[in-house]
Every structure is written in C-alpha cells, then in structure tokens.
Design a protein that fits this description.
Redox-sensitive transcriptional activator SoxR, 152 residues, Multidrug-efflux Transporter Regulator, Chain: A, Domain 2, 2Fe-2S, disordered N terminus, DNA-binding, mainly alpha, 6 helices, disordered C terminus, iron, metal-binding, binds FE2/S2 (inorganic) cluster, two-stranded antiparallel ribbon
C-alpha cells in the first residue's frame, strides 16, 4: 500500500494500450485470447491492463518481427513474473534464445536460396533431382533418403 500511495499505478484501457503501443485494438484482443497478455474487468465490464502490458506488447512485436511463433512468445512470457514489467535482463535472456532460432532459420533459408540458384533456368521440378522438391536433401550425405523408397 505504501509505495502505491507514493506512486499510483494507474491502469490502462484497451484504447490507451493501442494508442501507446501502436498496436490495433483487435490485435490486443487477439493477444489476450492467445494468453500473451491479461486484463481484468471493471464493474462496467471494461478491460483494464496493468502498465507492464506496454513492455509485453513491445516484446511481442519485436519477437514477431523475428518470426518467433506466437505460441513460443506466449511460453516465454509465462516465465516472466506477472507482477512486474519484464526488465532488461528478462529481454536479454529471451532475445538470446530467439537469436539461436533466428540463426538456424537463416541457415535453412540460405540453403534454400542456394538450392533455388541451382534451379533457375531449369524448371524440371523433378522429385529425384531438384533440391527444392527433395525435402531430404540435407540427409543425402548420411545415406539414402526416404524418397528413394518411393518408386515415383
Ligand atoms: S527445377 Fe530443376 S533442379 Fe529444381
């Protein structure tokens, strides 16, 4: 009670969160339906959000730009203490984890791009020889892929 009196933590309406975060009200409702953010209802049945929601929405937006699936973001946010704004150390931990995912996706996309280079001007889209058609290409060096079992 003491520190609240010194510095009251006014809660935010969904419209205020939308304005201050630059995220549409519909997106905020969607995040809430998916369990990424939470609110409580006033007596008049209006949603109210704690101020930590702004930082959470910022984390969600950045993670989405990195291509992190919403379910993964939700699980990560669940590890954060509900009662306070995710701090810089929390963000460092999350972003380090997502950096590894991003690196892995960059590697895969780079491989895919190089495969596409081999295909340009070919157009065969052959199951046997096209690196884009053959999803087991990366296992090729380890032995015959399942595609070889398919008489095609
Ligand atoms: S289109 Fe011919 S190798 Fe991919």
């Amino acid at each position: 009670m003491g520190h609240d009196a010194r510095r009251p933590r006014r809660e935010l309406s969904v419209g205020e969160v939308a304005r201050r975060s630059g995220v549409a009200v519909s997106a905020l409702h969607f995040y809430e339906a998916k369990g990424l953010i939470t609110s409580h209802r006033t007596g008049g049945n209006q949603r109210r959000y704690g101020r930590d929601v702004l930082r959470r929405v910022a984390v969600i937006k950045v993670a989405q730009r990195l291509g992190v699936p919403l379910a993964t973001i939700r699980d990560a946010l669940k590890t954060l203490p509900e009662a306070r704004t995710p701090n810089a150390a929390d963000w460092r931990k999350l972003s380090e984890h997502w950096r590894a995912d991003l690196d892995a996706r960059i590697r895969k996309l780079t491989q895919l791009r190089d495969s596409l280079d081999e295909c340009i001007g070919c157009g065969c889209l052959s199951v046997e020889t096209c690196p884009l058609r053959n999803p087991y290409d990366e296992l090729g060096e380890a032995g015959p892929g399942p595609h070889l079992l398919d008489p095609g």
